[in-house]
Amino acid sequence: MKGLDTLDWVVIALYFIILLGVAWWVIRQKQKNTEDYFLAGRNIGWFMVGASIFASNIGSEHVVGLAGNGAGDKMPLLIYELHAWIVLMLGWVFLPFYARSGVFTMPEFLEKRFDARSRWVLSIISLIAYILTKVSVTIYAGGVVVSALLGIPFWIGAVATVVLTGIYTVLGGMRAVVYTETIQAIVLVFGAGILTVLGLDAVGGWGELKATVGDDYFNMWRPNSDPDYPWLPLFITSTVVGIWYWCTDQVIVQRVLTAKNIKEGRRGSIFGALLKLMPVFLFLIPGVIALGLKMQGKLDWDSPDEAFPVLMSNIMPSGLRGLVAAGLLAALMSSLASVFNSCSTLFTLDIYKKLKPNKPEAELVKTGQIATFFVVGLGLLWIPIITTSSDGLYEYLQNVQAYISPPIAAVFLLGIFYKRINANGAIATLIGGFIIGFTKLTLEILKSSFAEGSFLFNIADINWLVFGAYFFAMCIAIAIVVSMFYPAPSQEQLAGLTFGTVTDEQKAANKSSYNIWDIIASAAVIIIVLYIMISFSTLAL
C-alpha cells in the first residue's frame, strides 16, 4: 500500500487547521447554559441540521465497514443504507412531538409520556448501547484507518483519534460538533466521490466490474431459505433498527432538536435523508471496486475492512489522496464527536441532574465534559470483543443493534400511536427487552464454548435477523399485554404527546410548518430508494 507523500500531508494539515480553527472560534463563544452546550442554543438552520445528521451517521461503520461489505459479499446489508425513508419519519412523524414537548433527550420524552422510571431505564440502556456499539466501533475503526494510512500501530491510532476529537468536543459542546460536522460532510462527499470515479476507471468501468465479480454479486435480495440474510427477516429487522436509530436515538434526534423550529428541523431531516442515499455510491461501490481490482491482480488486502483505505492509498493521486485521508479521519471524528456529546448529554441531564437537581448550569456542563472520558474508557475496553464477535465491522454493529433496538422502538412507536400504553407496559418492555437482548448477545459471544446441539448453543445459533424480527413482535406483545392490567394514562398526561391527543391548534401549527416543496423532496427520496432496491435485485440484473 502506498504511503502518504509531502503534498498529502500538506493537504491534511491545512484541512485540520481549518477544522480546529472553526472549533476554536466556537469554543471562544461562551456556553451560557446547558441548552447552549448540549443543543447549540436551538438555533441551527436546516442545511447544517441535515449535514450534521449525515456526518453523525457516516462514520466508522461506513468508511471501514460498509466498504468491507462491498468487498466481502455482504450485499444484502445494503438495505441499512436505504433507510432514508425512515429519516423522513423522523421529520414528519416524530419531530413535532419531540419539539412541542421541549425535551433535551429521548429519556426525558419518555418521562413526559410515561414516568420517571422510563427515563432512568432508557438512559442507562442507551449509555450501555453506545459503549457496545458507537463508541467502541468508532474507536476501533479509527485505529484501523489511521494505522493503514500512517503505518502506525493500531492502538496508537485509536487513542490518537479519541484524543484529537475529544478536545474540541469537550470544550466546544454541540455547537462545535455541528459546525465541524458540516465541514467534514462536504470534504467526505467530495473525496469519496472522486475515489469512486477513479476506482471505476481503474477497474475498467461499470461493465467490466460486473463482469469481474459477476452480475449476481449485486443482488441484495436472497431467498428466505438463505442461512445468513433471508430477505423478509432482513427487511423487518433492518426497519426496526432504522426506526430506533433514526427516530429515537439520542445521537441523531439531538441534531434536529438543535433546529430553530419544527420547519427547520423537518427540512433538515429531509436534507439528511437525501444525503443518506449517497453512502451506496461513496462507500459500498468502492468496496466492490476494491474486490474487482483484487480479482484482477491489481490490488491486495488481507481483510475486507481494509478495502477502502487500501483502495484510496493506491488509486488516488498525490494531494487528492491526502484530501480523502482527511475525509476518512473527518468521518471517524464526526461520528465520535456526536457520540461523545450525546453520551455526556444523557448522563448529565438524565442521570446526574436527576440525582442533584439543584446544581448550577456551569457545573452541569462540567459534569458532561467529565462523563465523556469515562464513556471513552469503557469503549476502549470493549474493542477486543468486536474482533471476535463477527467477521465484519458493519455486520457486528447491525448484529448488536438488532438486540438493542426492538424494545426501544416498540415503546416509542406504541407511545406515540397508541394511547392505551402506560408506564408499566413501557417499563416491562424496556427492562424485559434489555435482559432478553443482552442474554442473546452474551450467548452469541460464548457460542464456541457450548456443546453443539445443546439448548444454549441452539439459542446462540439463531440467525440474528430472524431473532430480531421475532424479538420486536415479542416486545410489542409485552407492552400491550402488561398495559392492559393497569389503568390507562390520563388525558392530561397524554396531551400533545400522542396522535390521539394532538389539539386542533397543534395540528394547524404543524400544517403551517411545511409546504409543497417539502412534500416533493420527500417523495423524491422514496422514489430513489425504490429505484435502488430494484436496481440491486434480479429484476435489473
What does this structure look like?
With 541 residues, this protein is mainly α. It has a single domain (6-29, 47-355, 363-535), classed as Sodium/glucose cotransporter (Up-down Bundle), CATH 1.20.1730. Helices cover 76% and strands 0% of the residues. The chain contains 23 helices and no strands. Helix 10 crosses helix 17 and helix 11 (250-257) crosses helix 15. The longest helix has 50 residues, at 154-203. Mean pLDDT is 82; it is low at 37-41.
**Second-tier CATH architecture:** Up-down Bundle
Provide the CATH superfamily.
Sodium/glucose cotransporter
Integer count of domains: 1
Main sheet record: none
Poorly predicted spans: 37-41
